[in-house]
Amino acid sequence: MAEDRPSLLDALTQVLQTGEPVDLQMASSGNDGRTFDSRIRAVRAPGGITGAVINITEITDRQAAMHLRETQARMFELLHEGVVVIDINNMIRMANPAFERMFGFQAGSAVDTSIEDLIAQPPGMRRDQLDQHLLGTTPGMSPVEFKCRRRDGSTFDAACVATLTHVDSETHRLAVITDVTERRGLEREILEIAGREQLRIGSDLHDGLGQDLTGVALMLRSVVAQLRKESSSARADVEDIISLVNGAIESTRAMARGLAPVGADRGGLIAGLQSMAVRGMERYGVRAHFNTSLKEPLTLDDGAATHLYRIAQEAFTNAIRHGRVTQVTIDLATAEGTLTLSVQDNGRGFDERNASNNGMGMKLMRYRAQMLGGDVTISNNQGGGVIVRCTCPHRAPLAGDSSPRGGFPLKD
Q: What is the pTM of this model?
């Protein structure tokens, strides 16, 4: 520290002359990056200043820690995601500028606000799940999505990841919140486009290819009739061809039903779920039952009915593939503005401790439910097996509604 010697001597002279304390910070001239804090204090006697005390302390680690905290603070300030620290009483103790902008706070005013005031609880989402993830003592590292409320009362879709942290020796929750409104809108649009394309292909299969194959079968029957009159040996071959064409017609109709299972021309959601139960018995040999408890007639558009059907289809298929089931029950109920769809089986259940809710099928089911403003839960049933339950808001028929939509089968 030879280069700091002149500064140290100047500071020492100043202290001896004035008696005022001086603090200096000095750096090592080597490559080790060591830093020292020097404090010079006067020694006083009745006759005046008699000397000085120089205290030199290495502060290399302290400086590194301070620079790290400054860097972290700058990162905290510059993040586009909202970052918030919540205490055990659900009060905000720290929030970055992005969080304050996201929720409409003035700079520095989010502290001491309850995080619960900023959550717009969807009617169909289970509050205990949200509490456990964001407000409870065991938050999860997988994102959970829910609606948030800005200071002006408007809402937006948010994805949140939370974890435990410690501030002043007390347990807090650190949550990172991302506004996913635009992403959800794009996902919704993509899903709707895919749904419309499926409906179009299903219609083309049913009204195009299906009708063409039916025409071919009718023409071949005329040929068979003519060959029968002529006692031709080719009649048996043509009849075999007719059987193959009829099989192709049935396959085409099945594909069309699969692509558009709950359209108005198919009879709506109830008819689709009834057909699902019947096909389950025919294809897999399980006892499949479909029950309804509709205290409010269904008022679903084709999009909502399709989402619910696909949720039930995924749960039904999973039960058959993985549950070793012999019986599956599908229940559809409406009451007090809420629609509940559940699929229950009598299989072997699953290990809840090691179960993952992040599989693609579960993600799709949950996303479809969130499109309807609700949520999906999966749990072991007390009587054995698994129960998948989707709960979402349901609008009761208005006075001007001519008839319920998307629910009741059409008459033949």
A: 0.56
- One of 3.30.565.10, 3.20.20.70, 3.40.390.10, 1.20.1250.20 is the CATH number of 261-412, namely 3.30.565.10
Structural class in CATH, domain 2-63: alpha beta
Query: Rounded distance, CA 252 to CA 201, Å?
Result: 11
- Is residue 19 a contact partner of residue 44, using CB atoms and an 8 Å limit? yes
Burial class (CB in 10 A: 0-12, 13-18, 19+), 89: exposed
The pLDDT value given to residue 404: 43
Distances, alpha carbon 302 to alpha carbons 268, 278, 348, in Å: 8, 22, 34
In angstroms, the CA 131 to CA 164 distance is 14
Tokens of 12: 């020492």
The token duo for 330 is 């599908």
pLDDT in tens, 74-98: 766 777 888 888 888 889 888 888 8
- Cα distances (Å, whole numbers) of residue 240 to 97, 230, 253, 277, 404: 75, 18, 20, 32, 46
Strands 287-294 and 327-335, by their bridges, are parallel
Q: What's the rounded mean pLDDT across residues 276-284?
A: 86
Q: Rounded to the nearest 10 degrees, how much is the dihedral formed by the CA atoms of 248, 253, 258, 260?
A: 140
Lowest mean pLDDT among 53-57, 195-199, 269-273, 328-332: 195-199
Nearest to 331, CA basis, from 320, 339, 321, 319: 339
